[in-house]
Specification:
This protein has two domains: 7-146 and 189-246, Spore Coat Polysaccharide Biosynthesis Protein SpsA, Chain A, CATH 3.90.550; 152-184, no CATH class. The strands form three sheets. A six-stranded mixed β-sheet has the order 4-1-5-9-6-10. A two-stranded antiparallel ribbon has the order 2-3. It has a two-stranded antiparallel sheet with strand order 7-8. The longest helix is centred in the C-terminal third of the chain and has 17 residues, at 230-246. It has 247 residues and is an alpha/beta fold. It has helices spanning 38-48, 62-71, 90-105, 124-137, 171-176, 200-206, 230-246; strands at 12-17, 32-33, 36-37, 54-58, 111-114, 141-147, 156-158, 164-166, 189-199, 214-218. Helix 1 (38-48) packs parallel to helix 2. The radius of gyration is 20 Å and the shape is globular. 35% of the residues are buried. Helices cover 33% and strands 19% of the residues. Strand 7 and strand 8 (164-166) form a beta hairpin.
Length: 247
């Protein structure tokens, strides 16, 4: 779908989804990285992106809401509890945000950017590059990806009896077996949480977060860390400190 608007005319909404609960790390979105809560890192990155019009934090948690506001985000409403469960998906959360903004402000963004607080090593450049990529390609959505460290050619499924079977059953896999040199395998990319961009109509008319034509924004592995464990947080701290030294 070719873009009908240029970047200067776009209305771009960056949403920082940050519920209060979490399993791997309690109160994960409030964990400190370089002395700052993860949710604040996401908000500040969004505000520094040149193509973002508004930054909103969707949360069910009043403390997260306060911190997001202090960082510069709008938090005009709290997310309903039923949309903030462990199994809650992104789509109804973003529909809730878009519906509330249209009802109360009459505002309809062209593009929606998803900036998860658990990817704190993103930069404003990632956000702007993702938006430019969507406009340049005419894609429905953009998703950040990085080169996968593991290849599905070498993956297995474990059966109830303890035996393992190839995850892939392509002719190439079945004829060559699992121990093919990596150089003979095509590159595979792993989706990460650095940035997603989606057209408004994809969310509201198609009922999905990612449309059928997706452009991939390739990011470096060290930029793509996802905070899910205390070890991830410690690694992010080291990488952020190294970035500051190299700057």
């Amino acid at each position: 779908m070719p873009s009908s608007v240029n970047s200067s005319a776009l209305h771009v909404l960056a949403v920082v989804p940050a519920r209060g609960g979490s399993k791997g790390i309690p109160r994960k979105n409030l964990q400190l990285l370089a002395g700052k809560p993860l949710v604040a890192h996401a908000v500040e990155t969004a505000l520094a992106a040149t193509l973002v019009t508004r930054v909103l934090c969707s949360t069910d948690d009043p403390k997260i809401a306060d911190i997001a506001r202090e960082a510069g985000a709008e938090v005009p409403f709290l997310r309903p509890t039923e949309l903030a469960q462990d199994r809650s998906e992104d789509w109804p959360v973003f529909v809730h945000v878009l519906d509330r903004l249209e009802q109360h402000d009459g505002w309809r963004p062209d593009l929606i950017v998803n900036l998860r607080p658990t990817s704190p090593l993103r930069t404003p450049r990632h956000v702007d590059d993702a938006i430019h990529l969507l406009l340049r390609t005419g894609a429905d959505s953009v998703k950040a990806v990085c080169l996968a460290r593991q290849h599905p050619h070498k993956m297995w499924l474990r059966q109830p009896d303890g035996c393992i079977e190839p995850y892939l059953k392509t002719p190439f896999r079945l004829s060559r077996g699992p121990d093919v040199p990596r150089a003979e395998l095509e590159d595979i990319y792993w989706q990460n949480g650095v940035v997603d961009v989606t057209r408004r109509e994809v969310i509201l008319e198609r009922g999905v977060m990612i449309g059928p034509r997706v452009a991939g924004l390739v990011t470096e592995p060290h930029e793509s860390i996802d905070i899910d464990t205390p070890l991830d947080l410690a690694l992010a701290e080291l990488l952020l400190a190294r970035r500051a030294v190299d700057a």
